[in-house]
Specification:
binds 2-OXO-4-methylpentanoic acid
Length: 371
């Protein structure tokens, strides 16, 4: 089967082995870096020169390869295309002031990827394949890591089930890959949010806590509907009563109510354990700002808004980092938040996190992984 996964359009010019994880590297003959306009970087449009690929077969991971970015050839009967056994992660590399690429918290993404893998009956990915593989890939494509503020190299590890079989059962063959793409800001302005009380993202016992592809596929239709109404993203609510908030679009969500920052807790399998979410909670608590993880009801948000204590709201995620929310709408009710420029907490977090991620500030948490 492996031999049949042909990579098209590749010109292998060099074969070499690199330390740590033993990766076979086939370097591209001529870089496509000239296609990158550092002044106009759009999320997910352009992919760097190389990608990492590793196969799992007979209950073992085979040797990883780094090869030129190229299309894949797969059987139309490949499992993930039919039954969605597919998971992914999102990680970012930044350029530090010395011009070196650094990766933010890749071990945390590795842990989460394996949580997703277990739930989706997929094999766990060894840490050296995930982290060392990523480091070697970023090192090779270091020229693709942009350096201006607000830019980064978005790293997309993912795993798909690749049995050529349309019977329904957990697959036995898998592909793990990492592709990378230069990224600019995900949202150009504060987002406007619609509180969803018809469609549901996640139930207890479901897969809401994973980065399974299906979690994103199922959100397309409801998101398309609210975009037609003029909103940017959905605030997902629980599936039983539509009373408690869960996540916003593809991000975790935070509110500043009075002097306390609140975010939904992780109990119940419905919330993704975001790496940015954890970074934000850590920084807030270190700064002495009260941060609570607990259920948050729409009624509580409405009451806080009426009382004038709903001061700030923002989403967090790898792609968007910290995305301020301009307004929340629930049916006919609009909650317009104070001007983002006046926010103290979110604006402090945005700067603090950026300083750590770009290596401008000492990394006292062990979050920065050198390439
Ligand atoms: C991320 O923030 O990495 C995400 O998962 C969002 C992505 C689906 C663009």
């Amino acid at each position: 089967m492996l031999a049949k996964l042909i990579l098209f359009n590749t010109q292998f010019s060099e074969i070499m082995s690199v330390s740590a994880l033993d990766v076979r590297v086939n370097k591209i003959e001529k870089s496509r870096i000239h296609q990158l306009d550092p002044k106009n970087i759009q999320f997910g449009k352009l992919y760097s020169d190389h990608m990492l690929i590793a196969y799992y077969e007979n209950k073992a991971w085979k040797q990883a390869e780094i090869v030129p970015f190229a299309n894949l050839s797969l059987s139309p009967a490949t499992t993930f295309m039919h039954y969605g056994q597919a998971i992914f992660e999102g990680v970012k590399a930044y350029k530090n002031p010395q011009g070196e690429p650094i990766i933010f918290r890749p071990h945390d993404n590795w842990t989460r990827m394996n949580r997703s893998a277990v739930r989706m009956a997929m094999p766990e990915v060894p840490v050296d394949l995930f982290v060392d593989g990523m480091r070697q890939l970023v090192e090779l494509d270091r020229d693709w890591v942009p350096s201006s503020d607000g830019t980064s190299l978005y790293i997309r590890p993912f795993m798909i089930a690749v049995d050529e079989f349309i019977g329904v059962r957990p697959a036995e063959k898998f592909m793990f890959m990492i592709i990378t793409s230069p990224a600019g800001p995900y949202y150009s302005k504060p987002v406007s949010i619609y509180l969803e009380d018809r469609y549901v993202r996640a139930f207890p016992g479901g897969i809401g806590f994973t980065k399974a592809a299906g979690n994103y596929g199922m959100s397309m239709y409801p998101t398309q509907e609210i975009k037609k109404m003029g909103y940017d993203q959905i605030l997902w609510t629980d599936g039983f009563e539509h009373k408690y908030v869960q996540e916003i679009g593809t991000m975790n969500v935070f509110f500043l109510i009075g002097d306390t920052v609140v975010t939904p807790d992780l109990n119940g399998d419905t919330i993704l354990e975001g790496v940015t979410r954890d970074s934000v909670l850590t920084l807030l608590r270190e700064k002495g700002i009260k941060a609570e993880e607990r259920p948050i009801s729409i009624d509580e948000l409405k009451a806080a808004y009426k009382a004038g204590t709903l001061r700030e709201a923002f989403g967090t995620g790898t792609a968007a980092s910290i995305a301020p929310i301009a307004e929340l709408t629930f049916h006919e009710e609009h909650m317009v938040l104070p001007a983002v420029e006046s926010w103290e907490v979110a604006n402090w977090l945005i700067k603090e996190l950026a300083d750590i991620r770009y290596g401008r500030k000492e990394d006292s948490h062990g979050w920065i992984c050198k390439v």
